[in-house]
Amino acid sequence: MNGxxxxxxxxxxxxxxxxxxxxxxxxxxxxxxxxSIAPGEMLGLVGExxxxxxxxxxxxxxxxxxxEGSIRLLGEDITHLSRRELRPLRRNMHMVFQDPxxxxxxxxxxxxxxxxxxxxxxxxxGRGVDRRVDELFDRVGLRAELRHRYPHELSGGQRQRIGLAxxxxxSPKLLVADEPVSALDVSVQASILNLLxxxxxxxxxxxxxxxxxxxxxxxxxxxxxxxxxxxxxxLAPTAELFxxxxxxxxxxxxxxxxxxxPVAQRARVRIVLEGDVPSPVEPPSGCRFRTRCPFEPRSxxxxxxxxxxxxxxxxxxxxxxxxxxLGGEGPRPVEAVEAAS
Amino acid sequence: MSLLQxxxxxxxxxxxxxxxxxxxxxxxxxxxxxVLGVVGESGCGKSVTFMSLLRLLPETAVVxxxxxxxxxDLLAAPTPRLRRIRGKEIAFVFxxxxxxxxxxxxxxxxxxxVLRRHLGLGRREARGRARELLDLVRIPAPARRLDEYPHxxxxxxxxxxxxxxxxxxxxKVLIADEPTTALDVxxxxxxxxxxxxxxxxxxxxxxxxxxxxxVVADIADRVIVMYAxxxxxxxxxxxxxxxxxxxxxxxxxGAVPRPGASRRLQEIPGRVPSxxxxxxxxxxxxxxxxxxxxxxxxxxxxxxVAPGHLVACFHPGPS
Lengths: 341, 319
Prior knowledge:
The complex is a heterodimer.
Chain A lengths: L6 E11 L8 E12 L4 E5 L6 H8 L7 E6 L2 E2 L5 H4 L6 E4 L13 H12 L4 H14 L16 H13 L5 E5 L7 H18 L2 E6 L2 H7 L2 E6 L2 E7 H6 L4 H9 L5 H6 L34 H4 L5 E4 L2 E3 L13 H8 L1
Parallel strand pairs in A: 3-8, 3-9, 6-7, 7-8
Antiparallel strand pairs in A: 1-2, 1-4, 4-5, 9-10, 10-12, 11-12
Chain B lengths: L3 E12 L2 E13 L4 E5 L6 H8 L7 E9 L2 E2 L5 H7 L4 E4 L13 H13 L3 H14 L5 H4 L9 H13 L5 E5 L7 H18 L2 E6 L2 H7 L2 E6 L2 E7 H6 L4 H9 L37 H5 L5 E4 L2 E3 L8
Parallel strand pairs in B: 3-8, 3-9, 6-7, 7-8
Antiparallel strand pairs in B: 1-2, 1-4, 4-5, 9-10, 10-12, 11-12
Helix pairs in contact in B: 3-4, 4-6
């Protein structure tokens, strides 16, 4: 994983104006997110609903235009490029969507769906496209005769394989996968996750994997970024993040995830967060997590007045918390439970 | 005697394209104060089973079998008798807290309706009891919440309101169908704690229908694994996770990524079967590594391999 980053996101901001009669203000969907993905790296972007993770993906894919900040794809600034200017660059990035039902055109055959990016990018002639589609079907484990079927004739798992084949048709350098398995049954999820891992190892693309499921991230990703209310609160190599989470939100998130093992699950100490996620229209001042932080008011008044910067506290481990000092010392999860009780 | 005893329950839907067999000769019992986990993938019949017990299915459903609750057969009881049980002694919590609450009425109004209807309380009494219920499900500032509408509440709060409504008449059984599936993990944790607390404090028996093995591991005492409308395996929770016997259960457990393990996930080949025809064979045979002639031509009966541990498989055993 050396070389120049495939994608660099710098201080990304995306605000949506509130619409409707008498509505004022903006939704702070993403507020200052920075990260980069190295060649061949899988970065997991984790967060709960409303954390802004899908908006980050849409900005990188330039399905949305960022409000502020910059996005560089293979060194080229694509933040404000027009649709036309973007078109030749689209072969470098592709996306797999959450819903394998609505993300495939029901009027196209599966073969046409997979061929479409090749046709649009004019990369191959007719026969070349044909061969490539055959190759892709084989690569994602689908029988060649499914080329002539329509999406509704396929199962959810097969459809998601079509989505993957389409995304990989033009050999992109970056694959953005937004909750690609959460709409599938458990027994089918495993085969798609295995396939994604195999394809990544063989083809070497970089991947931004968006999910709310921590176990999946641990299985697939090299590094993980945790988002809360439009910001990254922690970013670290996967093993490190799971072994020693430093941000109180990451700690709570890890403690709340259920594991399919009754002995381990019942022995776990759970940090239960109080209250709800605040509205992204008026996020809290200072630290956005302070309204639910089990350690509040330990870092007051700083928590109310200053936004904690995302600092590299140990090599490769970034945390945005007033309580975590350089060197990585910070609150321990057990203290959170003690503080709550 | 069990609190709820279901024998040979079958549910069939008659459609234009022929019959769909959603549940096939399912028998099980629910004990007092017990948390029973019912696990399976979409279409396995787990929700239909419990909808059919409370006769909540459309008229195209043909239900047979027996479901005894407090000396009454739920499937045969006259409708007025069933109405006194449904919502009062057996209460339901649905997956979607957004759509199961009426957007046009306040929270207090909706909880109050249950109390007035089933317990005959007056308006003021109902309001007081509704406030207590919101307090019971740990909703902060309950008095204020009574006058709010569902859209003013978060997803987790709405699910708490649903549980409060279900608990309004102090039911003996609470059936929760995927109660945490639409919620974030930190919110899910709170709801699971609440259900545990309800069982401890009120002694309510809980049926938890879910596809999430982690949720089952967290809270269930006993687990039923369903596949294609039939019971594949049933066991006490620790027994099931430590010594799964059915290849489907083993497959499901191996398919979930686990903390600390980076080995390849186990795949279950093929897809969940269509329920159009009921195979006179093991329904899992087409996906099963242990399938042979016997499994493709006979339906495996349940047999007890350890106390309370039932398996419907011709070749049970650890992988």
